[in-house]
Amino acid sequence: MKVVFERPKSLQETKTHYCPGCGHGVIHRLVAEVMDELNIREKTIGVAPVGCSVLAYNYFNCDMQQAAHGRAPAVATGIKRVLPENVVFTYQGDGDLAAIGTAEIIHAAARGENITVIFVNNAIYGMTGGQMAPTTLIGQKTETSPYGRDPKVSGYPVKVCEMLSVLDGSAYLARAQVTDVKNILKAKSYIKRAFETQLKEKGFSLVEILSPCPTNWGMTPSNAVEWVKNEMTKVFPPGIFKDWKEDN
């Protein structure tokens, strides 16, 4: 019998610990499939910081490095500069990347560091219990904004792709969602393009992926997917924000 679907070689054979309906498992598979297709697993080094993303090293079948909270781009920069022939990526959540790690991500992009960032945006702090994150929507209820996020008190959601797009060192920036087959495939194409950007030594690349967090949102998995599609995309529109050209 012909095998038509199997676990990517770049994924470990382990059971998931993520909550039902969480998008991390899908995103892990997409990254792993891209590593397999580009045949880069043996030379890839991933960096996992703190948050739900911290256990990524249990899933990816490549070399992995732990980083302090928010410091993954700085750690990845050091690794890439010492080992320029390797492919280096970070796997970060919105609380990690857009809060304590704001300086690291901005300056890595500004310097044009030849690394790839996979940025998972679920609009909330996941691992620590559902507090408001930099990407929490206006009016969204969390453990620390029980009446909904108030812009007069907490400001507005941070739009990472838009913010980094003005920096000359950014080579490729895109935002996708893992809500249905069409958008999952589009997310994969963005991830592949980001890794190709690094392989061609074009500079900094980042793919932001809108992902459901049913547990901390207090929703069923199906309702969480619909909330991503109908609410998150209004604030964080999917698409390509910056792309280097082949003839540059």
Write the SSE topology.
Blueprint: H1 24-38, E1 44-48, E2 63-66, H2 72-82, E3 87-93, H3 94-100, H4 102-111, E4 116-121, H5 151-154, H6 160-164, E5 170-177, H7 181-199, E6 204-210, H8 214-217, H9 221-235, E7 239-243
Helix pairs in contact: 1-7, 3-4
Please tell me about this protein's structure.
The protein has helices spanning 24-38, 72-82, 94-100, 102-111, 151-154, 160-164, 181-199, 214-217, 221-235; strands at 44-48, 63-66, 87-93, 116-121, 170-177, 204-210, 239-243. The protein has a single domain (24-243), classed as Thiamin diphosphate (ThDP)-binding fold, Pyr/PP domains (Rossmann fold). Helix 7 (181-199) links the parallel strand 5 and strand 6. The chain has nine helices and seven strands, in the order αββαβααβααβαβααβ. It is α/β, with parallel strands linked by helices and 248 residues long. Helix 1 crosses helix 7 and helix 3 crosses helix 4 (102-111). The mean pLDDT is 95.
